[in-house]
Design a protein that fits this description.
By secondary structure, the chain is α/β, with parallel strands linked by helices. It has ten helices and eight strands. 44% of the residues lie in helices and 15% in strands. The longest helix has 32 residues.
Length: 334
């Protein structure tokens, strides 16, 4: 925890560092985020105050579960809720395992350039059955009717990212507006699920919007504005060499498209930080927000973003816990 504010004024050393966490989307790969959050929560203490958490797609599942657990009972309950949520999202039963294997194989074949028949999710019943299962899992762990009452002045800001297909704009749902439909809309990948209608407009997966939402976390009163922003990033930022095969090209395109909006939003925060430091913006009205990234640090084929195999999800969760421990160790050593 820093003992000074960005404008040079001395801070009360007993004040916790205000932290916001943004969880990037990425399908099954966001089981990694579950592992990160569970590890962070295990070490959470009075040095930090969570003032906001956001997510897109699978990242929204994690953000919501952690938020709900924290505001209802605290860090240990948050760890239990997000862990149990992923346990229930994993493949269960022979038929489910067969479907998961088929979907993952088709995704890999498509990315490799195999000519596969293009089928709209509106033409077959399977995708909607899958969406219904996600709805049931979410509602089994989250009492959505209580969310408005849980959104008090001390509760962290909760933000879920989607895109409004009809208006062609990003749309975020915050706090009491986070319904099960909003979370499903954030995960409604166009080639897998039908769009979700909310307030007369259709919504798709947050990959086309803020992935994850960041600006909503920053638009808070001065006493709640994050001093640090922790990004749990699923898509690798860097790539060594040149993608040459169709599979690798498809993989890298997927990574880049998932990072575009994130890098734009972070770039603006960094610009504001520079303006605060050089005096362009007054330090008594604006402050620096330090950006930290917790990266996967390992590549997985893009087709595995639809893979719900329990062993694979456990691998991702363990990797997340490992990366979170390294992140915390670096902070303790700095």
């Amino acid at each position: 925890m820093s003992d000074t504010q960005a404008d040079g004024a001395t801070a009360d050393i007993d004040d916790p560092t205000r932290v916001a966490i943004a969880c990037q989307g990425g399908g099954s790969h966001t089981a990694f985020t579950c592992g990160v959050l569970r590890e962070l929560l295990e070490s959470w203490d009075d040095d930090y105050e969570l003032v906001g958490i956001s997510g897109t797609s699978g990242g929204a599942f994690n953000a919501l579960a952690v938020w709900y657990g924290l505001v209802t009972d605290g860090p240990e309950t948050a760890r239990e809720v997000v862990g149990s949520l992923w346990d229930d999202l994993a493949v269960s039963g022979v038929q489910d395992r067969w479907v998961n294997s088929m979907v993952t194989s088709l995704s890999r074949m498509e990315s490799a350039g195999f000519p596969l028949p293009v089928v709209s999710p509106y033409q077959i019943p399977g995708p909607e059955a899958g969406k219904q299962r996600i709805r049931e899992v979410l509602e089994a762990h989250i009492d959505f009717e209580t969310i408005p009452d849980l959104c008090g002045t001390d509760a962290p800001e909760l933000v879920v990212g989607t895109v409004d297909i009809n208006a062609g704009v990003f749309e975020t749902f915050t706090n009491e507006d986070v319904t099960v439909d909003a979370v499903l809309a954030s995960a409604a990948v166009p080639n897998l699920f039908e769009a979700v209608e909310i307030h007369g407009h259709l919504h798709w997966d947050g990959l086309f919007s803020q992935n994850p939402p960041v600006s909503d976390l920053m638009h808070q009163p001065p006493e709640r504005k994050p001093e640090e922003l922790w990004i749990i990033q699923i898509n690798p930022q860097e790539f060594e060499g040149e993608p040459t095969t169709s599979e690798v090209i498809a993989d890298r395109r997927n990574e880049l498209s998932g990072n575009i909006s994130l890098n734009q939003e972070l770039g603006f925060i960094e610009q504001v930080n520079d303006w605060v430091e050089d005096g362009t913006l007054p330090g008594d009205e604006f402050q620096r927000t330090e950006i930290q990234r917790i990266n996967m640090g390992k590549r997985f084929h893009c087709s595995t973003k639809v893979d719900r195999d329990p062993e694979f999800l456990d691998e991702l969760r363990n990797l997340g816990a490992e990366r979170a421990r390294a992140f915390l160790d670096d902070r303790d050593g700095s």
